[in-house]
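Reminder to self: tokens first, then the designed residues, so the page reads top to bottom the way the pipeline ran.
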């Protein structure tokens, strides 16, 4: 086969070959057709790639200048994510594809191989640019429209994965010179294998759709997942992983399917409400519960003025149980020191600025247990911030334990606190 059956005979090729022959003659390689073909091909490829890179640089430079001139959020995001740069990668292989026919005759087998390789490069570059555009669109949506911080990264990963799968199928069809439809038809035999390989991704996609549709989880939510060490804030939700930062700053990875297939606790409702529940108990020794002695009620009212409205209403109405129909009722009895204690603690909570008075607020005695008679404290703090809430909770429980001794009650134990039985009557009671 002579080189004329491979290299085209147009004027540019003839002119270029004449200079190549002169160069070979000058170095003593006369009429060496293989070397002539190699040099000719190298020059054509170098020129085409050079033109492609120059066009890419010019196009990218103009695009970036226009984007910077607009000074908009969209333009800034395009530049920050290098979307324009990733899309411009398709230019050099397109230019090479258009100039490759100049290197060989149309019937040359080498040209067929080179064209197929160039088409594969174009296909891959096009897929790379398309995934960059899709990522940019999802990023803009997540930044501007996704106000609920719904987990959409899994959907983005699936779309990008489908783009690359289609690109690979098209590339293989170009290489083997088959229709993509024929390849897709032949892949049905591998469907079970593919489902097994991508089981986690498929389950993650389904779970992500379910969580987004039902608004089960958002980035920034504080969640607790039973039977796992996950107890913290959600940092990220991807196709296969939910990343949780625990309160001790450790990172826990939980599969999304685990959250959908089993139960988990989301504290978002508490955060959105602006209040946090206090539900604790002080356990009283039953032997310390007794009827007030003569004059004891008057002495307690004088010592604790906040009891005066409660006692006056009961005495005037000749009742034993007080019930106020307000939002935060003060209830108790005059029959026992425990009833007076409940009335005092309820009044204390009603006057406490750190307790929300628009929510349920009550203090009630529960069934007797081996720990004693539980006096349950149920209310809501005005803060959901962890440190502030713990401070309010500690203050309420400390006061509840201390106040019990003022009414002659013995505290056996208390939730949230270590009770020192020897520290009774340590502080005087409040005056108002």
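Designed residues (432 positions):
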């Amino acid at each position: 086969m002579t080189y004329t059956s491979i290299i085209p005979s147009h004027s540019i090729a003839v002119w270029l070959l004449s200079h190549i022959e002169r160069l070979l003659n000058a170095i003593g390689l006369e009429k060496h057709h293989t070397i002539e073909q190699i040099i000719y091909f190298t020059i054509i490829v170098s020129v085409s790639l050079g033109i492609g890179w120059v066009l890419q640089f010019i196009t990218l430079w103009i695009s970036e200048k226009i984007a910077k001139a607009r000074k908009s959020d969209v333009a800034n995001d395009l530049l920050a994510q290098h979307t324009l740069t990733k899309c411009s990668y398709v230019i050099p292989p397109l230019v090479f594809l258009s100039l490759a026919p100049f290197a060989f005759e149309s019937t040359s087998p080498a040209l067929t191989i080179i064209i197929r390789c160039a088409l594969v490069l174009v296909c891959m570059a096009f897929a790379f640019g398309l995934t960059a555009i899709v990522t940019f669109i999802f990023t803009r949506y997540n930044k501007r429209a996704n106000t609920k911080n719904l987990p959409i990264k899994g959907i983005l990963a699936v779309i990008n994965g489908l783009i690359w799968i289609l690109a690979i199928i098209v590339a293989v069809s170009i290489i083997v010179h088959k229709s993509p439809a024929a390849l897709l038809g032949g892949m049905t035999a591998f469907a079970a294998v593919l489902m097994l390989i991508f089981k986690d991704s498929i389950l993650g996609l389904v779970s992500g759709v379910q969580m987004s549709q039902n608004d089960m989880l958002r980035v920034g939510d504080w969640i607790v997942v039973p039977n796992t060490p996950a107890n913290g804030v959600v940092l990220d939700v991807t196709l296969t992983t939910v990343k949780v930062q625990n309160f001790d700053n450790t990172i826990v990875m939980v599969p999304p399917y685990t959250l959908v297939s089993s139960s988990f606790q989301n504290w978002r409702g508490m955060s959105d409400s602006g209040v946090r529940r206090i539900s604790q108990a002080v356990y009283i020794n039953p032997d310390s519960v007794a009827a007030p002695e003569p004059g004891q009620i008057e002495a307690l009212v004088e010592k604790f003025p906040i009891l005066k409205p409660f006692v006056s209403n009961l005495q005037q109405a000749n009742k034993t149980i007080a019930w106020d129909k307000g939002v935060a009722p003060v209830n108790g009895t005059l029959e026992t020191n425990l009833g007076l204690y409940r009335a005092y603690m309820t009044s204390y909570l009603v006057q406490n600025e750190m307790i929300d008075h628009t929510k349920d607020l009550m203090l009630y005695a529960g069934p007797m247990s081996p720990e004693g008679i539980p006096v349950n404290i149920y209310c809501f703090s005005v803060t959901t911030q962890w440190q502030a809430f713990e401070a309010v909770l500690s203050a309420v429980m400390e006061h509840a334990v201390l106040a019990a001794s003022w009414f002659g009650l013995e505290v056996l134990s208390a939730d949230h606190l270590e009770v020192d039985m020897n520290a009774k009557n340590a502080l005087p009671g409040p005056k108002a």
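Residues 1-7, 418-432 have pLDDT under 50 and may be disordered.
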